[in-house]
Each structure stands twice: as C-alpha cells, then as structure tokens.
Amino acid sequence: SETLLKTINDLPFITTDGKRVQMMINYDPRMDSKETRKLKTDGLGLLRTEFLYLGREIPPSEEEQIELYTPAAKKFDMRPVNIRLADLGGDKVHSLKLGDYSEELNPFMGCRGIRFLLKYPELLTSQLRAIVKTSAQVNAQIKIIIPMVSRLEEVLETKGIFEQVLQECSLQGIYPKNKIDLGIMVEVPSIALALDFVLPHIDFVSIGTNDLIQYMVAVDRVNEEVADLYDPYHPGVIRIINDIVQSCQQKHKSVSVCGELASDPAIVPLLIGLGVDTLSTTPRMFLRIKNRLRTISYDTCANFAQAALLMGSSEEIKKLSLTIVDENS
Ligand code: PEP
Ligand code: MG
C-alpha cells in the first residue's frame, strides 16, 4: 500500500539477508514532482540528454546544456549523477541540420549514439565541455555514460577527446570538483561479449536492457507487430547479462542496469542474483522495486539465477520467476 511504500523510503537498500544494492533513479527535470523530490536514492543513474536536441535544427548551446545539468546535479548533491551523452538516432529521431546527414532505412542499425557524436565531433566536444563546466560548480560526483558503444575504438576515441576537453578547460582555470568517471552503456551484443577488452579503459558499466534485448532477439523495440517476441526471459538474454556481470566482477568494475528491466519487480530478483550491483529505476517504480529488494534474500536470487541459466526456454524461466515471492508477506 501507499503508506507502506512511504515508510520504506527511510529504510536501507538491503535484501533480507543483508546484501546492499545501490538504487538510483532515471531522472530528468521533466520528471520533477513532489513525489520524485521526496525519494531517498543513491543517486541519478541515468540522465537521458537527447530531449535537449530533439525537434530543432540547431544543437543546444553549452549554456543551454549547463542549465539542464546543473539543477539536476544539485538535486543529488554529493551523490553520483550519471549524464549520458546524447543518444541521437534510432528511436530518438532528430531534425538537426548537420553536414550530409540524411534519412536512414534502418535507423536502429545506423548512425546512432556515439557513432553519431563521433561523426559530428563538435557536438561531442560541446557536450563534454558543458559537463566539465557543470562539474566545476557542483558537489555531485558527475559521471559520463557513452551510449550505443559497439567497438573498443569508439571508447578510445571518446576518451581521447574527453582528455583534450579536460586539458583545454584546465587552461581556462576550469576544474571538476570531483574526478569525472567514464563508463559505457552495454546495449549492443558485440561489446557485451568483448567487454573484458574494454573494461581496463573505463570506470563502470550500465546495461541498457531496452536496446540489448532488441539487438539480441532481433526485435524492434517500438514495433507492435513483434512486441510479443520482445522477450526479456529469453535464455540468450539471461546468458549475455550473466556474461557482462561476470566480466565486470573479474575486473572489479561496477555494473548497473538502467533499462526498463530494473523497474520490473518480476525480473529484479534475477538481476540481483546474477550479481548486478546497482539498479536505476523510473521514479514511479522506485519504492516498489525497493520494497521488492527488501523482501527477498540474495541467497534465493542467486539460486534462481543459477537455475535460470540452465533453462532452455523462456516460458520455464518466467514460470520460475513467478515462484519468487516476497518473504515478508
Ligand atoms: C536502454 O537501452 O535500456 C536504455 C536505458 O536507454 P534508452 O532506453 O534511452 O535507449
Ligand atoms: Mg538504449
């Protein structure tokens, strides 16, 4: 009930057997409300920045970007604030007038996310500068997430440009208050399976299950015709999430889930059991997921995950997930 959820807001983020899980929210200022402001969180897990760029021909200025990032960062004060570089293209259809950019037959496989930013590096440097300038003014631990990474080279190139921006800023006397960590969205299967080569170059990983599932099962995430084939319980999906988490644990890097799966109470035990250390949910689902976390044991989740990894059909895995019931109710 609502009152139960309210009392949960003040309690720690732990399972019944004391496993601490970080819980953050996917947030941007458009979601600001009395309810969202009251939530006690470990931080901002995903700030999508695309909306600043949509429905216009000229990209936002640095000042405009800073006006978005600064109040968001101030809300989360000393905590992590994960700003994702603009993931333009794919389902985030924009009308920016840039060079020879033209319509694509297959935008989900096209010039999207970091590919787009590296093709128009002035967009990338402008966004990185805005983030560094913001970080000089706020106490939050600003982190940068690179979207749609499919190749190691994209990470190295972005990192090089970021270091250049940091250096240029320092020449102007602009220094981040805290070191800015750099991480990637893992949402393309190729990079998930080659993650051990990327991890030495980055600080953390965030799994974008919305895209990862679509690219794993070859089902367009916005196509109603095939919506029933968009299957989070597919054994291949569970295996690849397991692979990602294993790679991260071996290299001692934090791994979060910020896609919709983290806001799904039926799937959260599986994610925890696989070893995901951070969940970033929608503000609306935050307390419900927290309640779910607080009423299951890590032991049960781990057993569930190990069993699911041995199952060949999603029906079987889904059925098993329904047997994970709250231990307090
Ligand atoms: C995802 O792909 O899971 C994700 C969090 O990013 P978006 O939904 O913005 O593509
Ligand atoms: Mg995505």
UniProtKB/TrEMBL annotation:
Annotated protein name in UniProt: Phosphoenolpyruvate-protein phosphotransferase
Record function comment: General (non sugar-specific) component of the phosphoenolpyruvate-dependent sugar phosphotransferase system (sugar PTS). This major carbohydrate active-transport system catalyzes the phosphorylation of incoming sugar substrates concomitantly with their translocation across the cell membrane. Enzyme I transfers the phosphoryl group from phosphoenolpyruvate (PEP) to the phosphoryl carrier protein (HPr).
Family per record: Belongs to the PEP-utilizing enzyme family.
Full-sequence range covered: 252 to 580 of 580
E.C. numbers: 2.7.3.9
Chain sites annotated for binding phosphoenolpyruvate: R48, R84, N210, D211, R221
Biological process terms in GO annotation: phosphoenolpyruvate-dependent sugar phosphotransferase system
Cellular location(s): Cytoplasm
GO cellular component terms, A-Z: cytoplasm
Active-site positions on this chain: C258
Keywords: Coiled coil, Cytoplasm, Kinase, Magnesium, Metal-binding, Phosphotransferase system, Sugar transport, Transferase, Transport
PEP-utilising enzyme C-terminal domain ranges (all copies): 6-296
Reactions catalysed, as given in the entry: L-histidyl-[protein] + phosphoenolpyruvate = N(pros)-phospho-L-histidyl-[protein] + pyruvate
Keyword Metal-binding: yes
Cofactor(s) for this UniProt protein: Mg(2+)
GO molecular function, one term: phosphoenolpyruvate-protein phosphotransferase activity
Main localisation: cytoplasm
Signal peptide bounds: none
Lineage: Bacteria, Pseudomonadati, Elusimicrobiota, Elusimicrobia, Elusimicrobiales
Entry keyword annotation includes Magnesium: yes
Enzyme kind, highest EC tier: transferase
